[in-house]
Amino acid sequence: MSPLFEINIHTKNQAAITTLIDSGASSNFISPTTVEKLHLPTVLLERPRTLTMLDGSTPKTGKIWKKVALEFTYDGHTMTHKFLVTPIGHHSAILGIKWLEQEQPDIDWSSRQLSFPIPHSTFAHIAQEEEADVNPLESIPTQYHKFAKVFGKEEFNKLPPHWSYDIEIELTEEGPLNSPLYSMTDAESVTLKQWLEDELKAGKIRPSKSPISSPVMFVPKKDGSRRLVVDYRKLNNRSKKNVYPLPRPDDLMSKLRGAKLFTKLDLRWGYNNVRVKEGDEWKTAFRTKYGLFETLVMPFGLSGAPGAFQAMMNEIFQDLLDVSVIIYLDDILIFSRNPEDHESHVKEVLQRLMDTQLFCKGSKCEFHQTTVQYLGIIVSDKGFSLDKLKIQAVQEWPTPTTVKQVQSFLGFANFVRRFVANFSQIARPLHNLVKKEVKWQWTEKEETAFRELQKAIINAPVIVHADPSKPYFLETNASGAALGSVLSQ
C-alpha cells in the first residue's frame, strides 16, 4: 500500500482529480496545469503567499499569487473550497488541515479509506425551512400580537382552503410524460423521506396513481444547505403558459417617493399556501424512490406559478397597491409618507393576510424601519442605493473564462444597470461575446469592458427620488452601436 493517502475527487463536469490528503498542509493547493485543464477562473491574492516546506526551505517557484474556488464531489458529498495555485509535484491537488477541520470526514488511516457521515444538520436544516418560528411573536412588536395566527406554526402546517385563485394546469397535448429517477446520496434520501412524512401529515401531498410524473432532486443553496425541488420541465413544456405580468421592480420603486417609514413582510412558502385546482392534482405527480405522490398545493417549479401567485396577491391587496403597499410575488413592502399612519397600514395588511390564511416568518420581517432592503436594493427616504453585499460580490467576481460565466456576470450587471451610466456602450464587447456566431476570444477589449463595469457598479451613486414639482430633463444619445436616454432633474 502506498504511504501516501490519495483520493479521486470529481468536478461538476465529472473530471477526476487525483488529490493528496495531507494533514500537514496548512491550506489547499492545486497545480497550475489542473487549473488550466479545468478552465478555472483565478483570483489574485490581496497579498502574495510564501510557501514554506517542512525543512524550512522555500520552493524555487517563489511566491503564490493566485487562488481558485473549486466545487467538487467525493462519496456523494458536494463541497466548494478555495485552493492556492502552485506547482505541487505529480499530484493535481492537495487537501490540507483546513479542509479536514471543516468537512470532518471519517478516516481510516490504516486502510486509506475516507467517507462522510450523514450530516444531521443538513437534513434538519432543510426540514426547518418549511416551518414557522419556534417563538413566532418574539420579534413582533406588541401592537401586532393580535395577528399571532399570521406568524403561527400550527396554522402554517394546515392545508389551505380552495379559493378562486387556485392554480390551473392546462395541458396542450396528451401522451406519456415521465422521467427517470435521479440518484441521491444517503443524506438526501434521509431528507427526502422526512419531507414526505411531514407533507403527508400536513395533508399537502398524497399518494398518486397518475399516468405522468416528474422526478425530484436537490439543488444547493448559497448557505451550503440544499433545497428539495421537483423537476417540472417536461410538464411545463406541455402546459399552457400563464401570461399574467409580474410588476417591473423599477416601477414599484417609483411608488416609494416621499415614504418615511417602511415595514417588510416575509411570506413563508407563499406558493404552498395556494391550492392546485381540484381535478388537476394528478398533473403535479412526482416520483421518488419511496413511491409516487401528487401535491395539493402549488409547488415551486411550475411555469405558471409566479403569474398565478402575483394575480392572487394583486387581488387580495388591490385597493392598497401603490397607496401603502407594493408587492413583488411574496415580497411585501408597506410604506407610509406620514409615520403616524404606518401602524394602521401594517394592521390592514396583517388583517388581510390572516383572512386569506397567508403566513409570515416573523424573524425575517422588519417593522417600522427608515431604511430597508427590498428586491436587492436599499430603500430610504433619500432614494435608492446598492446593497454592500452586491458591491462586494462584484469586487470579488473572477475574470470570466467561458461564455456561460460572461452570461452570469451580465445577468447580475443587468439587474443593477440603472445605477450605471452608459451601460449598453460599456457592456457591448461582453454582449457581443455571448452571441452564438461569435468565437470565444477574451482580449484586452473584453477585459476593459469587464473592469469598467466592475468599477461603475462598485462606485454606483445613490439615485434620489423624483420630485414632481421640479422640471424634468430628457437626454438622448445614439450611435451605430447603441441607443440611450436618461430622464433626470
Can you walk me through this structure?
By secondary structure, the protein is of the alpha+beta class. The chain has three domains: 6-117, Cathepsin D, subunit A, domain 1; 128-380, Roll (HIV Type 1 Reverse Transcriptase, Chain A, domain 1), CATH 3.10.10; 384-488, 2-Layer Sandwich (Alpha-Beta Plaits), CATH 3.30.70.270. It is built from 13 helices and 24 strands. It has helices at 32-38, 97-103, 120-128, 153-156, 186-202, 233-237, 249-254, 305-316, 342-355, 388-395, 403-415, 423-433, 444-458, and strands spanning 6-11, 16-21, 29-30, 43-49, 64-74, 77-85, 93-95, 106-108, 113-115, 205-207, 214-220, 226-230, 261-266, 286-288, 291-295, 325-328, 331-336, 366-369, 371-374, 377-380, 383-386, 463-464, 473-478, 483-488. Strands 1-2-7-3-6-5 form a six-stranded mixed barrel. Strands 10-15-14-11-12 form a five-stranded mixed sheet. A hairpin with a 2-residue loop joins strand 14 (286-288) and strand 15. Helix 10 (388-395) runs antiparallel to helix 13 (444-458). The longest helix is centred in the middle third of the chain and has 17 residues, at 186-202. The chain starts with 5 loop residues before the first strand and ends with a strand. Mean pLDDT is 84; it is low at 118-130.
Topology at a glance:
Blueprint: E1 6-11, E2 16-21, E3 29-30, H1 32-38, E4 43-49, E5 64-74, E6 77-85, E7 93-95, H2 97-103, E8 106-108, E9 113-115, H3 120-128, H4 153-156, H5 186-202, E10 205-207, E11 214-220, E12 226-230, H6 233-237, H7 249-254, E13 261-266, E14 286-288, E15 291-295, H8 305-316, E16 325-328, E17 331-336, H9 342-355, E18 366-369, E19 371-374, E20 377-380, E21 383-386, H10 388-395, H11 403-415, H12 423-433, H13 444-458, E22 463-464, E23 473-478, E24 483-488
Parallel strand pairs: 2-7, 3-6, 11-14
Antiparallel strand pairs: 1-2, 1-5, 3-7, 4-5, 5-6, 8-9, 10-15, 11-12, 13-17, 13-18, 14-15, 16-17, 19-20, 20-21, 21-22, 23-24
